[in-house]
Amino acid sequence: MKKSLLYFQSGGPTAVINTSLYGVIKEAKKHPEIDGIYGAIHGIEGVLNDHLIDLRAEDDETIELLQQTPGAALGSARYKLSKDIHHEDYQKIVATVKKHNIGYLLVNGGNDSMDTCNKLSILFKEIGYDCNVIGVPKTIDNDLFHTDHCLGFPSAAKYVVQSLQDIQVDNLSYAKGKVLIVEVMGRHAGWLTAAAALLPEELKPDHIYFPEEAFDLGEFGEIIAKSYKEKGKAFIVISEGVSVDFPNENVRVDSFGHKQLGGLAARLGDYVQATHDIAVRPIEFSLMQRAGTVHITPVDRDEAIRVSAHAVKAALSGQSGKMVTINRGVTKAGKYTSRCGLKATSKVANEEKMLPKEFRDDIHYGSGQLMRDYLEPLIAGDLKLKSVGGVTSYAKLKKVRIQ
Amino acid sequence: MKKSLLYFQSGGPTAVINTSLYGVIKEAKKHPEIDGIYGAIHGIEGVLNDHLIDLRAEDDETIELLQQTPGAALGSARYKLSKDIHHEDYQKIVATVKKHNIGYLLVNGGNDSMDTCNKLSILFKEIGYDCNVIGVPKTIDNDLFHTDHCLGFPSAAKYVVQSLQDIQVDNLSYAKGKVLIVEVMGRHAGWLTAAAALLPEELKPDHIYFPEEAFDLGEFGEIIAKSYKEKGKAFIVISEGVSVDFPNENVRVDSFGHKQLGGLAARLGDYVQATHDIAVRPIEFSLMQRAGTVHITPVDRDEAIRVSAHAVKAALSGQSGKMVTINRGVTKAGKYTSRCGLKATSKVANEEKMLPKEFRDDIHYGSGQLMRDYLEPLIAGDLKLKSVGGVTSYAKLKKVRIQ
After folding, report:
1. One domain, residues B73 and B100
2. At what angle are helices B153-171 and B298-316 packed, to 10 degrees?
3. Does A45 contact chain B (CB < 8 Å)?
4. What is the CATH number of the domain that holds A98?
5. Exactly one of A112, A141, A143, A362 is catalytic; which is it?
6. Do B167 and A287 touch (CB under 8 A)?
7. Of B186, B187, B185, B222, nearest to B207 (Cα)?
8. What is the extent of the structural domain holding A40?
C-alpha cells in the first residue's frame, strides 16, 4: 500500500529552510510509491492539531520561489514535547499520522527537532506503526554534531562577514568614530560570531567574544577604553549567547526554559557609556542575519536541496531515527565538495557542537586561518535571485488543507 | 594658468558616496586644463589642516572599486564652520586652496555641506580668489530641496524595503510572533521610512511613524496591543527622527547641536514591555542601511557618476555656489530617466525637504501608490559586484599626501 509523506519546519527560520521544503517536494514527486506530499502548519503543532496541507496543490512557480523565501513558509513553532512518550501529545501525533497514512515523516530543525525525531521514531517502533522519521539539519548556530555544518549557517555567516565589513569601513570614515558593539546570533556556540575572523586584517575587531568563553565586564570596558584612546574608535563583535553578569537584572526564559536573547549589545553600550563616557553604537544583526535572502550562498542552496532529497530517499529506503549529515570533501582539482550521510538522531539530539578551542585561540592569538579555511568555501560566489521592482520575490503558498 | 581640483566628502557616508569620488576622478582626468586632482582627508578638516592627497596617484583598479566601497574613502567629518566668514577657519581654508592653486572645489554632502559651499563661494568672490565651488548632493535622508532625490537615497531605500520584507516574512512564521519595532534613519524627513510603503499588501506594517507627524506614546502602545491581541504579532516601522517624550530622559547632542539619534526602537520596546507586557523585538537598521554595498541600485550608481561628472564640468565652465540637481524625466518608452541641472546653494542650504503630507496620507489611508511611483524606478534592478571569497572587494586608497 502506498504511504504519504509529511514534512514540517521547526525552530528559528534560516535563509534556506524553505529551500529544504523545495528539495523535499521536488524529490518526493519523483517517487510514485509516495502517495500524498503533506506539510504540517506551524511545525509539531500542526501535527498535534491535525493541520496539514497538500504540497502537491502548489504550482511550480511557487515551489521554485521557495528557494528565495525567508521565514518558515509552512510556519514554525517552538513547542516542546514532553520527555514522556506516553504523554497525550504523542497519542495526538499518532492519531494524525495514522489518519493520513503517513509512512515518511521529515523534520527540519535543530537540536530540539532532532530530539523530536528521535522520540517519534522510538514511539512508532514501540507501537508497531510503520513510519520512518528522518531529520533535516537546520540552524544558523551551526551547533549540530556529526555534520560538517548545518543548513542555513553558510548564508547567515556570509551576511555577518559582509555586514561587519560594510559597517566597520563606514565607522573608519571618521577621525573620531564610535565604539561599535555588534551582536551576532548564537545561543551557546560561537560559530556565527567566528565569521568575523574572515575580515581583512585592517578591519579586524579589537576583540571577538564567544559564548564558550568567560566574560569579564571590567576587562571588556578596558579593551574599549584603550582602543578608543589610541584610535578614536573601537570595534567589538560579541555573540548574543555570551553570559554577562549585569547587576540587578531579571532573566526572561522561553517555553524551552532557554534564556531570551537579544539586546546584549545595547546593554553593554549603556555600561560603556556610563562607566567610560564614550559614545557607543550598539548594533544587532537581529532577524536580518537569518532572513536576508540576498545573502543566500550557492553552497547553502545546493546542499539544502541535496540534503532534503537525501532525507526523502532515506525514509523511502526504510531508514528511521536518522539525521542527514553533510560530509566535507575535496575534489581532485582541490575544490570544496560534500556528500550526504546519515547519523542516528539519538547521537545528535540535545548535544551542542561548540566552536573548538583551537579555532578560538587561532582567532584571538593567530591569523584566524582555521575559521577562514572552514568557512570560505561555504560562502563563496553569488546567486541571481528573481526580483520584481528591485525587491526579491517570495513564495506565497496556497495552503490547501487536508481533511 | 592651469588650476587644480579639490574634492571632499562630508557628513554620513552613503553606499555611493565613493562612486561620486570615482565619477569626479574619471571626469577630471578627461580635462587637460585641470592640473592636480586632489582629495581632502576628513572633509573640511583636511582643508583646514592642509591634509590633501593626490588622486592621480591611485591606480585604475582601486578607482574602479570605489564604486562598491562603503564609508567615505577619503574620510568624513562633522565639523561645523562658523557662521562668520571672517572667522580664522576661513583664513586657513583660503591658505590651503591658494597654496595648492585650487580653482575647482567640489563638496560632496547634505544640507550642512551645501551651506559650506555657499559660504566658500561667497568668501572666494569677496577676496577676489578665483575658485569655483560646486556641491554634489548626498544624503540617505533625501531631504535636499530642488532635486528630485539625493545620491545614496535609492540604495538605502532598497535596503529598507528588502530588509523589512525579509524580517516581516520571518516574523509571520510564528502563530505567536513578536512585536517588531523597526527603526529607520532619517533625522527630520520621513523619506527613507516611507520606503516601507513598497511592501506588498500582506506584509504591510500596522503603522508607519514619520518625523513630520506628532507622536502619541499612549496611542502607539494601543495600536500594538490591539494588533497583538488580534494577530499574535505586530509590525511597526518608525523613523529615528520621531520625537518621543519619554519621561526623565537626557538628550545628547552632537557638534552641530543635533540630537543624537538611534536607540529609539529599543526604548519604545522597553515601554511596550513595561506597559503592556508584550514581547518586543526592537530592530535598528543602523549603519547597514547606508553602508550595505550589495544593495547599491543601478540608478544610484549611474547618477552618482553622472552628477559628479556634471559637477566637474560646471566648475570648469565657471559656475560657482551651485549644487548639481537630479531632474526626473520619462523616456518615450515610458521608462525612468534623469538629467542633471544646477541650483544656487543659497537656495538649498539649511532647508529640509520633508515627506509631503499627500505622500503620508496616501501611506496611512490609501494604497501608498504615490511613494511606490516615486521610489520603484530608483531601486529597480541589480548590480554585479566584484567579490573575493564571497565578500565584496573594496578600494584601499594609497593616499599619497600633497606637500
Report:
1. yes
2. 160
3. yes
4. 3.40.50.450
5. A141
6. yes
7. B222
8. 3-139+296-350+384-392
